[in-house]
Amino acid sequence: MRPWFELPPPRVLAYILALLGLLVGVEALLWRLSHHQPFSWLDVGFWAVLAFIGTRSRVQLPFDASMSHLFVVALAIAVYLPGWLAPLVVFLASVDRKFGRPDYPWYKELFNKTQHGLATGLSALVWYFFTTYGRFLGGEVGIYVSQGLGIGLASVVFVFINISAVAYVIHLVSGASFRKIWFENYSWLWKSCLILAPVGLLLAKSYTTPILFGWGGFTVLFLMLLLYYSRYYWDEKVKLEEAFDNTVEVLMRTIDAKDPYTRLHSERVAAIVADMAERMGFDNADLKRITYAARIHDIGKVAIPDSVLLKPSKLSAEEFDLVKSHANRGVEVLRPVLPFVAKGVKQVILYHHERWDGNGYPERLQGEQIHPWARLVSLADSYEAMTAGRSYTQAKSPQVALDEIIALAGRQFDPEAVKVFEQAWLENPIWKDREVFLRAYSSLLPSSELPLPSSPEPVPATLPVSS
């Protein structure tokens, strides 16, 4: 167990101290601008408690990300309290749930407090200038416009500072590209931030216009109750989606496990597709989606009788037509949830047996008519089948399978996809040889039971983000 008081790497410590110095500078500027504004210690205590609670309450988001309620509360604090008090309150009241644990060192807490306070201070500065000097129109309309623009820009500044601070400390610790961390993990949060920004303004305005028992705090608490209530149902939605995904994956593994020739077929296809997609520049979100699609591309086979699916001899024409129907049947199996999955997932399930020359099934699509994700899965699926073999045909060696795929470029497969596949194959990935892949993959799984799929690789995105 590492000591709580250990020092971080020198570069990280210097970075935290630089942020702390910047926070002190922003605090000094806000003091000069707003120290004359009156305030009540009751108000300060109320908002501090909300900030404390907001830091410890998180809303689960896709890809294992989470978003704390501190964002909304901090914006309300920046709007309601004098500017110099806003970052101070957030700095002192934002206490991470892990604080005090042996595995949570002091410098992480200091970093989180500092970047939260800095983001709040700069947001308060933006709000102050917009509402003081940003009146573009006269009358009440001008007030509403300046406040709307002020809260919108304040939220953008908060999110930018918050995310950039965490992305850079990750860069210092891991050596990963700052730009890659920022854009692949956090850029998708902007729309959510802009939507939530008016909620912060609403909380602040509600506090000044009490509608319950003469104190605005009751109004704010009522609105926060609604926010937490919606959070509960969002959590349940996320859990339901995860349960569905786990159920689908168990079905896929059950299908693959029925036949020794298709054991871990879907996992190997997904590994090939993920390798190709990464080389083709897929962003992190689409990389996860196409990998998921590859893992469930044969979900329609649950509707095919085992007597046909596991037949040891070559299929008759009628039986082959029945097997080919698994593409359409897969879409039918997932129809209740199709509105909630990426469009490409449906395209993969439906079109992963289409051919570049138009001689595939079920719709005989040709060339660019075939969804790009389906083209990658088609190639990976074919390579896996070639090197795995079947009861009625011998498995091909990796080299023979590669040569056949290259020969079929422009006929069965997308020529560009074939080039990417060849480049990946030449680097001897683990999926190249089926037996190597089976040994490596099986060693990670418990042998006594069929395991549930592991969670997707987490995206370290929280709002406000915590290191």
Automatic annotation (TrEMBL):
EC identifiers of the protein: 3.1.4.-
UniProt xrefs under Gene3D superfamilies: Hypothetical protein af1432
SMART domains found in the cross-reference section: HDc (SM00471)
Keywords: Hydrolase, Membrane, Transmembrane, Transmembrane helix
Segments forming domain HD-GYP: 240-437
Transmembrane segments: 12-31, 67-95, 116-136, 148-173, 185-204, 210-229
UniProt-recorded Gene Ontology molecular function terms: hydrolase activity
Cross-referenced InterPro entries: Cyclic_di-GMP/3'3'-cGAMP_PDE (IPR052020), HD/PDEase_dom (IPR003607), HD_GYP_dom (IPR037522), MASE9 (IPR048430)
Stored PANTHER family: CYCLIC DI-GMP PHOSPHODIESTERASE TM_0186-RELATED, LIPOPROTEIN
Name used for this protein in its record: 3'3'-cGAMP-specific phosphodiesterase 2
